[in-house]
Design brief:
CATH architecture: Beta Barrel
Number of strands: 9
Low-confidence stretches: 1-28
CATH superfamily: Calycin beta-barrel core domain
Helix content: 10-25%
Strand content: 25-35%
Number of domains: 1
Structural class: alpha+beta
Number of helices: 3
Radius of gyration: 16 Å
Distance between the termini: 29 Å
């Protein structure tokens, strides 16, 4: 219970801190969001990279798993480790709901039933093998993949694609998915 209360306090403090910051100005107009096939989007997505923030900074071997519910909501489980030698995977649960009229590309996600964040699925591979996600203020972004490892050329391409959506690629850091990636340039 103490752990939950501490996490809740941190999330609330971060929400208030976020209100004080000014939103990023996009470098270009944001392209239209895609139509997202929710059935194909469901499943496990490895977090290849993100703009680090308190909730994910320093985590390794992290992934989001999405499951569509009968009521139209989506169960979200964020799994991670703090260290590779940690015996048990940790997880954080949330739920999301696609907003009407957005082609399933704009979601409102809730943590603990009180903390809400808006997410945009910015772009999805035609075969649903990678996805780019971000927030409307462009202060958070993620590169997702169905596989835990992504080659450097693919990652560079996706990082540049985020620039079209108003994100600075230098702000995006890779998440180590295997121990050999820790400490490499560009990784958290």
């Amino acid at each position: 219970m103490k752990r939950f209360a501490l996490l809740l306090l941190i999330l609330i403090a971060a929400a208030f801190a976020g209100c004080a910051s000014s939103p990023r100005e996009p470098t270009m107009p944001q392209p239209p969001l895609p139509e997202v096939d929710l059935d194909r989007f469901m499943g496990r997505w490895w977090v290849i990279a993100n703009i680090p923030y308190f909730g994910e900074r320093g985590n390794v071997a992290s992934a989001d798993t999405y499951s569509l519910r009968d009521d139209g909501r989506i169960d979200v489980v964020y799994s991670y480790r703090k260290r590779f030698d940690e015996p048990n995977e940790r997880s954080l649960r949330a739920w999301a709901r696609p907003l009407p009229g957005t082609g399933n590309a704009h979601w409102r996600q809730r943590f603990f039933g009180i903390l809400s964040v808006q997410l945009h699925i910015l772009e999805v591979d035609p075969d649903y093998q990678w996805a780019l996600l971000g927030t409307p203020k462009r202060d958070l972004a993620w590169v997702f993949s169905r596989e835990p490892l992504m080659d450097d050329a693919q990652y560079a391409d996706l990082s540049e694609r985020l620039r079209r959506f108003g994100y600075e690629p230098a702000d995006i850091k890779r998440v180590p998915q295997v121990p050999e990636q820790q400490g490499l340039p560009g990784f958290q």
